[in-house]
Amino acid sequence: MSSPRLQRLCTAVATALLGASIALLAACTGGGDARAEGPVVLAAASLQEALSEVADAWQQGGEARPRLSFAASSALARQVEGGAPADLYFSADREWMDRLERAGLLRQGTRADLLTGELVLVARPGEQLQGIAALASGRVAVAEPASVPAGRYARAALERLDLWRTVEPRLVPTENVRAALALVERGEVPLAIVYATDDRASDAVGAVYRFPPESHPPIRYPVAVLAASDHPRAEAFRAFLTTPQAQRIFAAHGFGIAR
């Protein structure tokens, strides 16, 4: 089986497993008990540490802790389209949110851009790789460029810098940005293109180049309540994400606040 076919198969399997896990998450609490739990939030993988801390702060305020499911924005959006039980969707780009909005899957009036981000090239310390010249050789891990937001931003940046044709044959596509980061952390590939917040969350890598903001579409993280949600605190948690308390947590993890 060719590498691209294998990658598509792995992505399909991961998406199916994600859907099963989301359904199981909701089913384990069961109808009425689900109200005693917080809303189910489907969130981009890059939000893992920051959103988990925000969820802790929400719980400390006397609320039931939200149930968080992290994966690629593309995989999560497809699960929403497939009817996965969830209350909020927190994407790493606008395109997947646009797709759900066009399909009528968002609750009107709840969509908002919350965060911004940056794109960086990372390597393990001691690799002697610095600057954009590091892309001249060696494999580069990247989230799937055809669908995953981090990968799409990466492709746009490489095309803008006239490097796509040079780097594409050496790309190692992964199911999400954290999987790309993990390959470098484990020393399986020398480089990865990830968000600056991913670099900040890892003690095993460091940024060797920051892509100019103008080299790719603006990195925005929109959030919305899903139209199918019937959780009584879904909109309240979405509102909490915009409070100064939550924004301080996101900023502490390296995210910019969308204006």
Give an account of the 3D structure.
- The protein is α/β, with parallel strands linked by helices and 259 residues long.
- It folds into two domains: 152 residues, Periplasmic binding protein-like II (D-Maltodextrin-Binding Protein, domain 2, 3-Layer(aba) Sandwich), CATH 3.40.190; 97 residues, D-Maltodextrin-Binding Protein, domain 2, CATH 3.40.190.
- Helix content is 42%, strand content 19%.
- It has a six-stranded mixed beta sheet with strand order 2-1-3-10-4-11, with helices on both faces.
- Helix 3 links the parallel strand 1 and strand 2.
- The N terminus is likely disordered.
What would the keywords be for this entry?
5-stranded mixed beta sheet, 2 domains, alpha/beta, 259 residues, D-Maltodextrin-Binding Protein, domain 2
Topology:
Blueprint: H1 3-29, H2 33-36, E1 40-44, H3 48-60, E2 67-71, H4 73-81, E3 88-90, H5 94-102, E4 112-116, E5 119-123, E6 140-143, H6 149-160, H7 164-167, E7 171-174, H8 177-185, E8 191-195, H9 196-201, E9 206-210, E10 220-225, H10 234-240, H11 244-252, E11 256-257
Parallel strand pairs: 1-2, 1-3, 6-7, 6-8
Antiparallel strand pairs: 3-10, 4-10, 4-11, 5-8, 5-9
